[in-house]
Each structure stands twice: as structure tokens, then as C-alpha cells.
């Protein structure tokens, strides 16, 4: 299996880039771009999740842990990705809309099968580089070679770009699955990735050496593995809500079988179009290319089946790429533009008017005594939140397990964060809101399939069979 570690760090109230700040020269001639955030709140909780990804229906296991103060203390002891020759485990953070798998090559990168993609080569053309360059160090090494092609990977957790990432090729091993049982380990001998200096890995969890991009473009994991193994360019994400159990990412098509023999089949999913934002919204906004991230068309929001009055213009993507709704593993909680956030918070409080509020706990603004709220199979007994999609009959219903956060023993809060008055994306659906929901990203057909809460099916994302044949 490809192992990965997903981290969600602090200071992530809004991930949209409104301006690009100073550019500092890196030691190898590349440049670092600190992305200035003009709006947004700080999150005080860091989260970390670890696991493995594998290939024709490749699987990914997921372990989630939380710490206070925005410091991530690392993950479990599982290896994360097996790369290089000889194979070594490398921990990575998952980045749902990421354009590439990038790895820190400064810290002991040794491999007999590594080679840099020469400018004009097929690998460079697939990667669509920014430019070509000659590294100025005295001798070639991973990340620094003559006539290599460069791209611009980003670290979403510290809002930083690096335009000197060397496009490179090396071996990678993954474990397959048929959707029911784990299968044999298989090898990808020529996997395209990006080699970067150590500073780009700052802000990641302890021991994490890069990010695994699952975005739309041609060198992200879904695209590359689909080409190698010949399966459809689809993948499913099912994140565990548990701090001790694993979730799953399946690269390729289903079936998706959860213990005890519960089939989350295609007919059990609700489908909505995946939209393409024609303006880059990630961490390379100046390249004038479509976003690699995943947008959906939210038309309205209901709480307890009553419409929330919001500015519908903010829900559409305008010609400059602003607005709309995307799904992001780079945010621990859903982030909303201020006016939407205020309207949703007000409507939620009105629907829960019989329960008195308590002082808010940052970064949340609407909190209650957990002793005054009952429980259901799908979490705390609070008003449901519906994201209305292409019609009133197609909706993503968010129940208490996903809409609220238990911030301490006595307090529960609405798990939505104020993203400021002018974020680039109006609504960013964060990691907490998609836990124990199976999401299938069907890139060729440009559609998202989603299950809503698996708790209704008496299963969770932790119930995939990772270890033995059933």
C-alpha cells in the first residue's frame, strides 16, 4: 500500500489566497512565495491522520488524532508510502485538491532508480512544468540536476509556494484490493513526483516528508495510477471520525464493502456534478490554469428543512474564480464567507432556541452545554443542515456527528468557522464534515457520489477490511 499521513494544522480559518506576499530567494535558486491571507480566523486545534493507500482499487488507511494549541504530534507507527530503490517508507500529508505528490529530497534521499525529468521529456510534458533550469550546485543530486524541468508545489498548511520543485521519477509500491479484501502488493516503477527542499515540509506533522495530491491534474495520484493499472480515473474517500481507527481511500472504482458485509454500492450514493473552476484557486493562482480542486454546486442551505436567507450570488463561481463551494481535506472544519456564516449560525441557533447558549470556544462562535443536548444514532440531537444541490430533491444532509464538535467535556459547538468577508471560495467543506461519509470522485464523468452519514447504515469509515481475507 501507499501509506499516507493527513495533517490538518492550526491557523487555517480560510485557505483562499487573496494576495501573494513577498518572494524570498531559496538557496538553490528557486523562490518561495508566502501566500498572504487577507481574511479568516485562526484554528486552535491541530489534527493528524495516518494510513495507507493502494492500487486497483487501491486502499488508504486513516488514523486521526487531535492535539490542542495547533501542534500536531505525529501519527501512528505505520509506514506511509513505499518509494525508491530499495523501498523505504515515507510519511505524507493527504491533499485532496493537490496537484502533485511532493517529497523532501534534502534529508537522505537515496535511490538507485531516481532520475530527474529532462526538459522536453514525456514526463515533463505530462507534468506541465513552469520552466526549465540548471541547478547551480557542484554535483547533481535529487532535487538539483542539469536541464531539469520545474513546477510549483505548495504546502497548504503553511500557505507557501516553491517554484523550483524538480519533476522527478522513481519507484513506488502499493497494495491492491478488490473492495472486499486486501490484495497483492504491486509496484509502479516510474512514478512522477516533485522533489523539493526541506523548508517546504515545515508545518507538517513530525516525520512527515511531503504531501500526496489527489487533484484533477495529470501527475496527481488518481491520474497516474489510473494510467498504470488501466482502471477508471475515480477514487473514494472515507475518513474515520475515530482517534484510534482507520478510514480508507480507494483509488479506482468500487465496490466499497464495509464490515459487517455492508455494500456501499453506486445505487446507495447520491450524485451531483463536479464543477471546474476555470481560475486556479489553490496555491498556484498565477499560472492561469483551471483549479485542480473539487467544487460542487450548492444552490441553497436549509436548516431543519427551512431555507436560510443568504446571498445566492456568493454560491456561484464568478469569472474571476471567486465564490462557489469546494471540498477540502486542508481544513479541519467547514469555512464560510462571513455573511453566509452569520446566516447559518443564526438559523441554527433559532432552530435550537430551547437550548441555552454558552460562551463560545474559539474558533467556533455558536456553542452549547453538551448536557442539554441529547444523542441519536447520527450524533448529537441538533437541527440537520442541508446543502441543496442541483434541485431541491438532491441534497447533502449533515447530521449532528458532522455538524457539531465536542470541544471539551461540557461544551459542544457548531463546527463551522467564519472565513472572512472576501475569501476566494465562499464555502469550503472541511474534514470534520465529511467524516464517516463515503465520497466518490468520478473525474471522467465529472460527478461526486456521496453517501451522507454511514452511521445510518450502522457502519463507519473505520470498517473497511485492511488486513485479512474475509
From TrEMBL:
The keyword Secreted applies. Residues 77-451 form the Peptidase A1 domain. GO terms for cellular component: extracellular region. Keywords: Secreted, Signal. PROSITE patterns: PEPTIDASE_A1. It is found in: Secreted, Extracellular space. Its main location: secreted. It comes from the Eukaryota. One of its GO terms (biological process) is proteolysis. CDD domains: xylanase_inhibitor_I_like. Belongs to the peptidase A1 family. This is OLC1v1000243C1. It comes from Oldenlandia corymbosa var. corymbosa.
